[in-house]
Amino acid sequence: MTDTKYTFCRICEAGCGLKLTIDNNRIKAIEPDKNHVNSKGYACIKGLSLEKFVESPDRLTQPQKKVGDKFISISWDQALAEIGSKLRAIHQQHGGQSIASYTGNPIGFSLWPNTANQGFLKGLGSDKLFTVGTLDCSNKFAAADRIYGSFANQTFPDIAHIDMLISIGSNPLISKMSFIALPHPMEQLQKIEQRGGEIVWINPRKTESAKRCGKYLPIRPDSDVFFMLGFLHQLIEQDGVKHQRVAQYMEGYQELAALAKPWTAEKVEQVTHIPAAELKSLVTRYINADGAAIYSSTGINQGRFGTLAFWLQECINAISGNLDKRGGSLMGKPAIEFPDTTKEAKYSRINNTPYITAGIPTGILADEILTPGDGQVKALFVMAGNPLMACANSDRLAEAFEQLTLLVSIDLYRNETANYADYILPGLHFLERADVPFFFMTAMGLMPDRYFHYTDAVLAPPGEARDEALILRQILRASGFSLFGSKPLQWVLNLGEKLSGLPGCKDGVAERFYGMIARGAKLGGLKKLRQNPQGQALEANQPGDYLGQRVATESKKVQLAPAEFIALAQQLDTIFEQEINHPRLKLISKRERYSHNSWTHNVSAFIKGQRNTNYLYIHPDDAAQHQLIEGELAEVSANGKSIRVPVKLDSDFMPGTVSIPHGWGHQQADGLSIAKTTHGANVNILASDGPDAIEPISGMSQLNGIAVDVRRV
Ligand SMILES: Nc1nc2c(c(=O)[nH]1)N[C@H]1C(S)=C(S)[C@@H](COP(=O)(O)OP(=O)(O)OC[C@H]3O[C@@H](n4cnc5c(=O)[nH]c(N)nc54)[C@H](O)[C@@H]3O)O[C@H]1N2
Ligand SMILES: Nc1nc2c(c(=O)[nH]1)N[C@H]1C(S)=C(S)[C@@H](COP(=O)(O)OP(=O)(O)OC[C@H]3O[C@@H](n4cnc5c(=O)[nH]c(N)nc54)[C@H](O)[C@@H]3O)O[C@H]1N2
Ligand code: SF4
Ligand SMILES: [Mo]
Hints:
Elements: E1 2-8, E2 17-23, E3 26-32, H1 50-54, E4 64-67, E5 70-73, H2 76-94, E6 99-103, H3 111-124, E7 128-131, H4 133-136, H5 138-148, E8 155-157, E9 164-168, H6 172-175, H7 185-194, E10 198-203, H8 208-212, E11 215-218, H9 224-237, H10 243-249, E12 250-251, H11 253-260, H12 265-272, H13 276-288, E13 292-296, H14 298-301, H15 306-319, E14 329-331, E15 360-361, H16 365-370, E16 379-383, H17 387-390, H18 394-403, E17 406-411, E18 423-426, H19 439-442, E19 451-452, H20 468-479, H21 487-499, H22 509-520, H23 526-530, E20 536-537, E21 558-559, H24 563-569, H25 572-579, E22 585-588, E23 616-618, H26 620-625, E24 633-638, E25 641-649, E26 657-659, E27 706-712
Parallel strand pairs: 6-7, 6-16, 7-15, 9-10, 9-13, 10-11, 12-21, 16-17, 17-18, 22-26, 23-25
Antiparallel strand pairs: 1-2, 2-3, 4-5, 4-18, 8-14, 19-20, 22-27, 23-26, 24-25, 24-27
Helix pairs in contact: 2-20, 3-20, 5-15, 9-12, 9-13, 9-15, 12-13
This protein binds ligand MGD (2 copies), iron/sulfur cluster and molybdenum atom.
């Protein structure tokens, strides 16, 4: 029977609405949903190719157990019983804190499995949740926590009305943006220019986006914090501060201004390589614009000073009067308010490294496993993640994984990390689960057009693949623990599990969970949600409703000069001196249209021809200086490690900057039959981990601006 089903894509934050034609549980067609409340007929190639992921012959449909160096299929009963008893033994011998989990990016888009994962750890008496947020954005969380009083208070530019957008370290045409739900971003960004406004891209690479519209200003990698200081200095110098607004709604202005004082446009030019005259003119245009904002993304987040750079950005938007203003930088309202449960300060046993939004930096995952003592991690549950490819210092992480007593991967496929696992459990593709939009939209309000969308599962899972939340709960049950440590909750959920599927009990636990939280937020229960299969629009954002009203700090004022940030900024003088005439090449990341982190190379169409490897992208002048030749191999070294990848000459990169896309190097991935045929190497072998390598406030790993050497092989 052919059916039409509406749902939305959960690969990236755009959350595009999709219309699926399904026949006998097989996808016959995927189209962009023209009537989707937010995406209105936009979807990209990845969302329109979902069947290739769902129906891949490599898809796991039964639990796998490692025996010798092979994986064999086993029953769920056996898998749960064995994992359960191992977990119990580890718990008895080493305590709850010896059990950890790593949740990857894809499952971050599904609220219920994540909630269940928190309950899983809590039930075991562990708080060791390693989060990929420390690879892409925890600097924003840490900064917002101190500036606005909650990690979840995140701003976004009012794209529909903005007069001047300064976009730093972001490439919307490829990545579709982060911290804003903006499907078809380029169309919306081009409209800024069409109505007489301006976009400026600040990036070491003239990106696909910068070629499409706007003005491009090259910046030396990892110098953004100095750019922000110079911008702030000029803003004050050029009288761009709205002092009355600052006095009414903000605190700490004097300390902030004192910090910016020495950083003239001429001074910062020495390390950013943005001419002082350009910076001054940029600031003038920013001041004169009727609504302006600086927006930034992973280009600064993954640098050495992501928290400081983002903090300064927020201060600039705030003191110039653009925060909470039409056409400026808005603080959206979430669809569902969740209490901020991350306030309790916690520290890892590794060098007292602070936790961030209730998680531990992935940059100390290997240390947590390798360092003996109380709380040494012995068991790790990896859910929808590939830390071996995604995290810094992959070689050391691989060594650490070999030391674990128990490693369980819950995934669609056997990826590189799963190769090290004792058990691999088959999870669901998102089309097989009910969901609401990503946490950033639903709970943090990062939506220019506010909306909500509930989707049921639109496909039945293949074979014995199971809902991740159920898997976690069943593991707990098998090891004698209960979700959130609550026996009654576990009992109710067990009962729900037994009843679901029986006549009159169609909805499972996930469906009921979403129905309950939506009803609590007055969005309607499941019945009402299902009446809007293409999503529902919510009341529009109202500029002017944040300052003095919703700021979550104790004083209800925006904190412009958190003491920790001012203290860390004292290091900048030394770094500045080191960066002047810095002789080495700086390595940055590069996202690609057909790659999504490490997991889309198992689709033949995505790895065709030249796309079957990653490359070292390098400016022709730098290549000539190092005798590198297009198409031949280069050896790239950093931190005592090296990898080899073919050279691609590319004058879109600023001289002194090189790039190698991440997520490659699948040669050992026996469980990914197509990806295994690709070439290239894992760039994260070159990145450093450990407590001294991560950004001290947010725990971010440095994945941009790594000093490297290159040579011809
Ligand atoms: N096609 C595709 N889309 C994706 C993903 C993917 O892998 N592939 N990943 C998704 C995920 S998980 C995320 S978090 C988002 C991220 O979304 P974005 O943050 O928008 O990511 P990028 O497109 O990589 O943009 C980062 C930009 O920063 C620039 N950059 C690098 N170093 C520096 C620097 O030191 N300073 C400055 N100013 N710029 C720098 C790079 O040249 C790059 O253009 O994308 C999502 N979308
Ligand atoms: N050098 C460098 N490294 C980077 C980055 C960079 O820019 N440069 N970017 C970083 C960023 S932004 C991120 S977010 C991380 C990503 O880091 P990870 O999330 O750890 O890695 P992914 O490659 O996204 O792997 C996701 C895994 O989830 C599986 N999967 C997909 N959907 C589901 C599902 O619904 N259920 C289950 N159970 N499994 C599923 C896939 O099969 C895949 O194996 O990588 C980071 N690493
Ligand atoms: S833009 Fe993102 S959400 Fe939209 S279809 Fe593509 S991958 Fe999916
Ligand atoms: Mo990410």
